[in-house]
Fold:
Amino acid sequence: MRTAMAETSLDAYRSTPARELNRREREVMALFTNTEMAISRKQIFEILQKKLGDDAPGEGGVTGRVNALVAANRLAHRGERIDPKTRKPQELVGLPVAEQLELLQ
Structure:
């Protein structure tokens, strides 16, 4: 499926070089092993804390990195879940799936 975007906008998007990821962004991206996986920012924070210990970023740092990865189309919004402890909705993120990538082409 294609969007009704002007060709010049598509050309501009395609010509923009993908920026390199910083260390924290690479740590977040390393958690995603397949396109089916979708986890919350809180879960990402908890996994990184277990994995990296004292070197793990704070919860705010994880949120910032995830937001930057979503803005760069490296991660995508993948629904919501209810946190079992707080009973509040949490947004899930995961790798972009093929249908989402087609919209950008």
The chain has a mean pLDDT of 82. The first helix runs from residue 7 to 15. Strands lie at 38-40, 76-82, 89-94. The first strand starts at residue 38 and ends at 40.
